[in-house]
Every structure is written in structure tokens, then in C-alpha cells.
């Protein structure tokens, strides 16, 4: 099924992530001056699906300037489930948007697999996002005029392709969406809508799925369904997932939790449990600020 008829082979079609993005306006003003020695890069030995090196991102200028990311370097291993946690305003969404090419960085580089996305032109970036990145938003961001199935097929349709039917069947069955495929988003519960958004993100088997508070609008039961699916997609399909969450029990589904505070990575926890996540968060309440960081 085609939703965006191709007008010629050279035309770059819009990508899903830019269609449904949250609409942050990149502001290139006010390059921040490095203030602190960066913490040791959080590197892993396995192949990295995503690598960020020395990322800086500031919004506004002068006294009103907010430095959302301060020299962030981090790797996300392929086939792993990583959670990102931190207080409100600590830069989690900014990091996620910079990693996914939905926001620009002031300095630093982002690689998705072998491809460097920072510095790419619009067309190349659109193509790379479409081919390599899936995004799940807190607000689901399904297109209201399309059925669940059409929403799921949208990324492949935009690419002028059809998702692998066998793969799609597996994803739809795992998410228990088979009997909801002909419904429009308004005819679905919040949990069902987010499961459709999960299927949409995985339909093209992207190199990485970014999820920004995917369970933020869901009740406990629906949250569990979405989180179990994300976990299963890592364990059974080798998917790479990076998820922002405020919920320690959601973070416990991940293999690793990266903690941000004031735009810097302040802790890296492996094999988290809800208890170790809560203990780590408590530890920050009394921590000494990093050099150059506002208290
Ligand atoms: N487009 C923007 N213009 C100006 N400031 C921004 C913009 N986007 C983010 N910021 C600021 O950057 C900082 C980091 O914001 P970000 O959205 O990344 O935080 P967050 O950790 O995702 O918070 P939350 O948990 O509330 O979602 C905040 O101080 C925020 O106000
Ligand atoms: Mg956020």
C-alpha cells in the first residue's frame, strides 16, 4: 500500500521521524565553552549501534542560555536494551533527539552503526533516519486518518518498499494486535496505540529504536506489555533499544541504565534492578556537583 506516491526516483520522501517529531526548533546560537573535563567515555567492548562523542547542545544565548548537553560521550551496544534516566530537564530528550538526528548538535559527532549522522545534509539525514532509526514517543504520535495496519506500514511505505510480511506477522502477533489492525487510533486504547507505535518502530528492522518515555502515558498493565515487548525484541530479534524513562521498574527491564544530570553522564549501571536504580538515584541527591556545573 502506498501513502506517499513516488513522484520520481530522485525525490527524497519525508521520513517518519520528522513527520511525527515533537517539533523542537533547533537553535544554533550560543556555542557553549567547554567547562569541565569530561567523565570517562562509557565505552563497551561489543559492536556499538550508536556512538556519541563530545556532544554539546545549548538553547538560547546570553543569560537565558540553557546548556542541555555538556560534552556527552557514550556508546550503545548492538543488541542491548539501555535505559536513560535523570531528573526533569537533565537533557534526556535532547540527547535522544541528537542521537536520532531529530535535533542538531553544537559540537560532537553521532554515529549510527558505521554512518556518521552529524554534518549530513537534509536529504542524506532523512534517508539515514528512515533506514536505520525507529522512534517511539510518549504521545504515540500515530497518524489519526490511518488504520493501525497502515500506521505500522508507514515507514516502509514512505521508503517506497513493503515491510517483510513474515517479520511483520511476528511483530503483530507478539504485540497481540492482529484483531485491531483495521481500527483507527481513536478506536484504540492508549496501550493498544503504543503497541501499534512499537510495531511501526520495528517494522523496518532498524539499526536502533529510540523510545522517549514510551510508558509515560500508560497504566501499569499496558506499561508491562510494552516493556515486555521491548525486552523480547532485544532477546529474540537482537534489536537495539535506547529508552528514556522516569520509572525504576521500567528501567529494570534494560541491560544497563545511563544516568544524566545537568547535561552530563553521571553514572552507568549494569544489570539494573528496580532497587539498585532507586539506590543510585538516592545517591545523587547528596552528590557533589561536577566541575563547572550549576548546583
Ligand atoms: N527547544 C528548546 N528550546 C529551549 N530550551 C530547551 C529546548 N529543548 C530543551 N530545552 C531545555 O534543555 C534542557 C534539557 O531539556 P530536555 O527536554 O532534554 O530534558 P529531559 O531530561 O528530557 O526532561 P523531562 O524528564 O522533563 O522530559 C531543559 O532545561 C529544557 O528547558
Ligand atoms: Mg524529556
From TrEMBL:
Protein name in the entry: ABC transporter ATP-binding protein
Q: Which SUPFAM superfamilies match?
A: P-loop containing nucleoside triphosphate hydrolases (SSF52540)
Can you tell which superkingdom this protein's organism belongs to?
Answer: Bacteria
| Coiled-coil portions | none
Instruction: Report a single Gene Ontology molecular function.
Output: ATP hydrolysis activity
Question: What Pfam families does this protein's entry cite?
Answer: ABC_tran (PF00005)
Sequence segments annotated as region (Disordered): 14-40
UniProt keyword annotation of Nucleotide-binding present: yes
Instruction: Could you list this entry's UniProt keywords, alphabetically sorted.
Output: ATP-binding, Nucleotide-binding, Transport
Q: Where is it found, in Gene Ontology cellular component terms?
A: membrane protein complex; plasma membrane
Q: Does the keyword ATP-binding apply?
A: yes
* Residues in ABC transporter domain copies: 50-287
Amino acid at each position: 500500500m502506498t501513502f506517499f506516491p513516488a513522484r520520481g526516483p530522485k525525490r527524497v520522501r519525508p521520513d517518519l521521524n520528522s513527520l511525527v517529531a515533537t517539533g523542537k526548533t533547533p537553535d544554533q546560537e550560543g556555542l557553549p565553552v567547554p567547562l569541565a573535563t569530561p567523565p570517562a567515555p562509557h565505552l563497551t567492548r561489543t559492536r556499538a549501534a550508536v556512538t556519541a562523542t563530545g556532544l554539546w547542545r545549548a538553547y538560547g544565548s546570553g543569560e537565558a542560555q540553557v546548556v542541555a548537553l555538556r560534552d556527552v560521550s557514550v556508546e550503545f551496544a548492538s543488541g542491548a536494551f539501555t535505559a536513560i534516566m535523570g531528573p526533569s530537564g537533565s537533557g534526556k530528550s535532547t540527547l535522544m533527539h541528537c542521537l536520532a538526528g531529530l535535533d542538531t548538535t553544537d559540537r560532537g559527532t553521532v554515529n549510527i552503526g558505521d554512518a556518521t549522522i552529524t554534518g549530513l545534509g537534509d536529504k542524506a539525514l532523512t534517508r539515514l533516519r528512515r533506514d536505520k532509526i525507529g522512534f517511539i514517543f510518549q504521545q504515540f504520535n500515530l497518524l489519526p486518518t490511518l488504520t493501525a495496519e497502515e500506521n505500522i506500514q508507514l515507514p516502509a511505505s514512505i521508503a517506497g518498499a513493503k515491510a517483510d510480511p513474515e517479520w511483520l506477522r511476528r511483530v503483530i502477533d507478539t504485540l497481540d494486535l492482529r484483531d485491531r489492525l483495521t481500527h483507527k487510533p481513536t478506536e484504540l486504547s492508549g496501550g493498544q496505540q503504543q503497541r501499534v507505535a512499537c510495531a511501526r518502530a520495528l517494522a523496518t528492522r532498524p539499526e536502533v529504536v529510540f523510545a522517549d518515555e514510551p510508558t509515560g502515558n500508560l497504566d501499569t498493565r499496558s506499561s508491562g506489555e510494552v516493556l515486555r515487548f521491548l525486552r523480547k525484541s532485544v532477546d529474540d530479534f537482537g534489536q537495539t533499544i535506547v529508552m528514556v524513562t522516569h520509572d525504576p521498574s521500567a528501567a529494570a527491564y534494560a541491560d544497563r541504565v545511563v544516568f544524566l544530570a545537568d547535561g552530563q553522564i553521571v553514572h552507568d549501571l549494569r544489570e539494573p534492578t528496580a532497587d539498585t536504580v532507586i539506590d543510585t538515584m538516592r545517591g545523587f541527591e547528596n552528590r557533589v556537583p561536577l566541575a563547572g556545573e550549576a548546583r
